[in-house]
């Protein structure tokens, strides 16, 4: 059977699911389709033409290479297709976004046929995805006196690829759709348990919200054909939890517009809103697609006659509706006045939604085109020896004389690209920065690969110090979906230049370590900028930003990222930890104390949390920086003492060496290069040449939070509060309760110790508690299942060497076997301990899940509805988050313990303790 016949069979199968033909990315299939197009008598010719024109993916896919070559034949008259004229062939090339299409256009533009060269040049002037090989050809032709090359370069220098685009419409009519009340997790827009389908955009679009919601959106579009549907988080924040490119893709698929008539299911320009705005990392993803994100502020705090907030019986501010955005409300966005209207009534100012930079993204159909366009304009102007005209909005450069720098301001100033020489920049400045470390995770990696293909990138930027492709999100179950997707992903990323968790050649043992832990280890400079395809890219060295798959692709391809320098909130500590407390409790207490200190306002949201931990090595400090995603911060920076940082770098070196010994380094010796950089940094610190990063003593912060350790007297639990009468306050991560709240009575159906939040010390706590309880009770019996998943293999190796793993094995009823990985997700749990494979496990929710309706107590990060546990008909599923000792004890006794039970169980155990630094972790400003 031919590949084409297989494709037709697949199309018939997809019809039963209500799906269109899957877009073509393979050269072999498209070659057969072209053969049928050339055969005028082929019964499949008409369908083949449609597939060739309307259903082939652009960029650097192998199919794109075949398509570009055939279009070149048509333009040159070597092939004649009645339905595809040379002019239409040029139009199709103009929609192919770089790679083979640019190569073909350059062939034609620099060829001997003057008329064809002119047409090709006109198309090239509209293109921006050119790489070094392409610009080198233009440069050589120009220097050889080629007039067409000169004409193209002159167009690029004027940025005509941008200036000739249509202006953004002055008025945009929208009709509202409330997607949910309270914070809307990206899991609602793109569920984690459907991660396997993310690269199949149409199929994945079927999982957004609910089928009913999809029908309601379609009905609104039918009623208001002249309006765009705006998805809204009523009384909450839109897009919390992750950047989730697939979530934005789904919103665009249902509510946006098609980017190109010749590229299926790639939509742009979604419009989203939230009472409390858009989650920062999700807003970046909206920008990638040329969309609009709006902070609606349609509910405000009610105030009394003296202007003071009115509080309810729980001491929380009472909200009142400023204006309605009920589903079906028609509003008008005025992009010129930057305001939102209901008829003639002005509702709110939208200046932040329509900054000059965001207007450019909207006009260009996304941020990529602007990033590449600016580079192209600079290249052309420099080659022509002229000053590039001011076409793009100038980067905002904010500098305050005499004001010191926060840690993030220092990092951004050091990594800034293309700023005014000698100018010191402060928060609010728009900056293009060099990216040092990049991470791609496995459930979004296929989309990152697609983005790289669409922007015609073929190799990692040489300015990136290191990049890693993980296998942690698909570690738990090696099922048919994983087997179909992951090897293909690893091969692509390995060839692109990343260090990969799985070896495409099968020579080294698969390393399914949690991506954030690996990125934390390969970050060997606290001045580094890290971009990762996951919201928990929150390193305890450097400053790390969780990003969508497109921003990750851009960082890999260009070695750069663009963003404003965020404001910072300084967090310091006073007092002493009680000996029965764990550092995880300090993390939760920080959030609770901050909210109390600022009257319920989350001052962390959208800002950098600069946390002065000082004395904890990177592994333990990561527990804090990781949780800042749940605090809705944009990122975090851990300030360390010199000796602590040296200790962290030595640990990182050893772990990188283990990766090298496994055979994971590539031909560029990336991992060895990181060890060399770590050695250099250690020597700089030891010699005093360049001490550990600290902020200036006169730096300016948005707010300062002092955490009182003396006030933390009981373990702290983050509760999804699933039955709160105010729906908007469910699943928020903001409800932090002490242990006694539960009265030693709340039933626990399953415990989970795992995820990026735990470290080696947590696994040792598990073994020590089991030993303790056995001494006290003579034996240990579990009254609820306990799932334990170490985040990394090196932790298991170290536990084996220290005798702890043997004890864990003694009490476990299941231990993972790399030689026989699970082929199916576990659906039922017994009251025993399970030692699962390193990776994300239950935290991700895409493979393993608790039984529906369970109450789960976990060390992980997610408590969103349906993530770890789904609702059942009998009760709501709930995932409460706590420290390792609380989780272990709860699984053993089958309920949340009383404070006395807890204290007895942890007596003599080495919990993760923390003593604040007695040093002032600041430096004298040089500005």
Give a description of the structure.
By secondary structure, the protein is an alpha/beta fold. Helices cover 38% and strands 16% of the residues. The strands form 9 sheets. A 7-stranded mixed sheet has the order 8-7-3-1-11-12-13. The N and C termini lie far apart (72 Å). The mean pLDDT is 93.
Chart the SSEs and their pairings:
Blueprint: H1 3-15, H2 27-38, H3 45-54, H4 62-76, H5 86-94, H6 100-109, H7 114-124, H8 132-143, H9 147-157, H10 160-163, E1 171-181, E2 184-185, H11 186-189, H12 201-205, H13 211-223, E3 228-234, E4 238-240, H14 245-255, E5 257-260, E6 263-268, E7 271-274, H15 280-288, E8 292-295, E9 299-301, E10 319-321, E11 330-334, E12 339-342, E13 345-349, H16 356-364, H17 367-384, H18 407-415, E14 416-417, E15 430-434, E16 437-440, H19 445-454, E17 466-469, H20 480-496, E18 499-500, H21 515-522, E19 529-532, E20 543-546, H22 549-558, E21 560-564, E22 568-574, H23 583-597, E23 608-614, H24 618-627, E24 635-640, H25 642-662, H26 670-687, E25 703-708, E26 716-718, E27 736-738, E28 750-753, H27 760-777, E29 786-789, H28 793-802, H29 804-811, E30 812-815, E31 833-836, E32 855-858, E33 878-881, H30 884-893, H31 899-906
Parallel strand pairs: 1-3, 2-4, 3-7, 7-8, 16-17, 16-19, 17-18, 19-20, 22-23, 22-25, 23-24, 28-29, 28-32, 29-31, 30-31, 32-33
Antiparallel strand pairs: 1-11, 5-6, 9-10, 11-12, 12-13, 14-15, 15-21, 26-27
Helix pairs in contact: 2-3, 2-4, 4-5, 4-6, 5-7, 6-7, 7-9, 8-9, 9-17, 16-17, 19-22, 23-24, 25-26, 27-29, 27-30
């Amino acid at each position: 059977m031919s590949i084409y016949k297989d494709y037709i069979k697949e199309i018939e199968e997809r019809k039963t699911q209500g799906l269109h033909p899957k877009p073509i990315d393979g050269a072999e299939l498209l070659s057969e389709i072209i053969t049928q197009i050339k055969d005028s008598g082929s019964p499949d010719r008409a369908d083949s033409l449609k597939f060739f024109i309307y259903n082939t993916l652009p960029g650097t896919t192998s199919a794109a290479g075949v398509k570009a070559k055939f279009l070149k034949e048509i333009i040159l008259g070597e092939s004649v297709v009645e339905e595809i004229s040379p002019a239409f062939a040029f139009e199709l090339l103009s929609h192919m976004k770089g790679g083979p299409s640019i190569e073909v256009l350059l062939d034609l533009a620099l060829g001997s046929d003057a008329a064809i060269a002119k047409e090709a040049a006109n198309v090239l002037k509209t293109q921006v995805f050119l790489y070094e090989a392409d610009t080198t050809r233009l440069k050589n032709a120009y220097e050889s006196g080629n007039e067409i090359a000169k004409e193209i370069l002159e167009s690029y220098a004027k940025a005509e690829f941008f200036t000739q685009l249509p202006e953004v419409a002055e008025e945009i009519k929208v009709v509202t759709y409330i997607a949910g009340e309270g914070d809307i997790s990206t899991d609602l827009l793109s569920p984690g348990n459907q991660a396997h389908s993310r690269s199949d955009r149409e199929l994945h679009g079927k999982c957004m919200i609910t089928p009913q919601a999809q029908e309601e959106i379609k009905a609104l579009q039918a009623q208001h054909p002249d309006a765009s549907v705006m998805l809204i988080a009523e009384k909450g924040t839109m897009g919390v939890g992750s950047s989730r490119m697939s979530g934005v893709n789904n919103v665009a698929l249902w509510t946006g517009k098609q980017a190109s008539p010749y590229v299926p299911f790639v939509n742009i320009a979604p419009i989203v809103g939230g009472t409390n705005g858009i989650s920062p990392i999700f807003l970046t993803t909206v920008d990638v697609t040329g969309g609009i994100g709006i902070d609606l502020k349609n509910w405000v705090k009610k105030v009394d006659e003296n202007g003071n907030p009115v509080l309810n019986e729980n001491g929380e501010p009472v909200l009142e509706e400023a204006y309605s955005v009920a589903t079906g409300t028609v509003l008008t966005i005025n992009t010129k006045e930057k305001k939102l209207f209901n008829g003639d009534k002005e509702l709110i100012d939208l200046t932040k939604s329509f900054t000059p930079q965001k207007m450019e993204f909207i006009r260009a159909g996304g941020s990529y085109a602007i990033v590449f366009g600016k580079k192209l304009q600079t290249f052309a102007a420099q080659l022509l020896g002229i000053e590039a005209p001011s076409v793009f909005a100038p980067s905002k450069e904010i500098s305050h004389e005499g004001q010191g720098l926060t840690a993030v301001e220092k990092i951004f100033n050091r990594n800034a690209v293309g700023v005014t020489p000698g100018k010191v920049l402060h928060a609010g400045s728009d900056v293009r920065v060099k990216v040092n470390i990049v991470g791609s995770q496995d459930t979004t990696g296929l989309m990152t690969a697609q983005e790289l293909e669409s922007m015609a990138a073929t190799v990692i930027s040489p300015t990136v110090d290191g990049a890693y492709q993980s296998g942690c999100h698909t570690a738990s179950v090696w099922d048919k979906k994983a087997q179909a997707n992951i090897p293909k992903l690893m091969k692509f990323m390995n060839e692109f230049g990343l260090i990969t968790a799985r070896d495409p050649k099968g020579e080294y043992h698969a390393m399914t370590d949690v991506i954030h832990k690996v990125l934390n280890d390969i970050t060997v400079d606290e001045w580094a900028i890290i971009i990762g395809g996951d919201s928990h890219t929150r390193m305890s060295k450097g400053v790390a930003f969780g990003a969508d798959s497109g921003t990750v692709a851009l960082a890999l391809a260009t070695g750069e990222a663009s963003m404003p320098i965020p404001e910072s909130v300084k967090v310091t500590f006073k007092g002493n930890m009680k000996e029965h407390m764990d550092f995880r409790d300090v993390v939760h207490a920080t959030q609770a104390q901050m909210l109390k200190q600022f009257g319920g306002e989350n001052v962390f949201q959208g800002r950098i949390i600069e946390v002065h931990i000082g004395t904890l090595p990177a592994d333990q400090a990561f527990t804090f920086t990781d949780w800042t995603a749940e605090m809705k911060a944009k990122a975090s920076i851990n300030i360390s003492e010199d000796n602590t940082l040296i200790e962290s770098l030595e640990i990182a070196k050893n772990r990188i060496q283990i990766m090298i010994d496994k055979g994971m380094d590539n031909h560029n010796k990336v991992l060895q290069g990181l060890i060399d950089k770590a050695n250099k940094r250690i020597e700089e610190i030891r010699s005093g040449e360049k001490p550990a990063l600290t902020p200036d003593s006169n730096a300016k912060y948005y707010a300062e939070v002092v955490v009182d350790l003396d006030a933390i007297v009981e373990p702290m639990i983050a509760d999804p509060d699933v039955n709160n009468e105010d729906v908007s306050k469910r699943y928020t991560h903001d409800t932090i309760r002490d242990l006694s709240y539960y009265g030693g009575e709340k039933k626990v159906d399953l415990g989970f110790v795992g995820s990026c939040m735990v470290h080696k010390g947590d696994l040792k706590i598990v073994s020590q508690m089991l030993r303790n309880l056995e001494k006290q009770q003579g034996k240990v019996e579990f009254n609820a299942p306990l799932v334990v998943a170490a985040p990394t293999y090196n932790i298991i190796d170290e536990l084996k060497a220290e005798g702890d793993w043997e004890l864990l094995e003694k009490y476990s009823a299941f231990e993972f076997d790399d030689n026989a990985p699970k082929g199916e997700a576990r659906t039922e749990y017994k009251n025993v301990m399970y030692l699962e494979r390193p990776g994300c496990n239950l935290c991700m929710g895409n493979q393993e899940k608790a039984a529906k309706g369970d109450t789960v107590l976990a060390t992980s990060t997610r408590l969103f509805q349906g993530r770890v546990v789904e609702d059942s008909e009998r009760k709501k599923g709930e995932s409460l988050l706590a420290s390792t000792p609380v989780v272990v004890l709860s699984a053993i006794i089958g309920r949340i313990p009383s404070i006395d039970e807890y204290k007895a169980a942890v007596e003599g155990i080495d919990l993760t303790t923390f003593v604040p630094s007695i040093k002032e972790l600041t430096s004298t400003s040089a500005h």
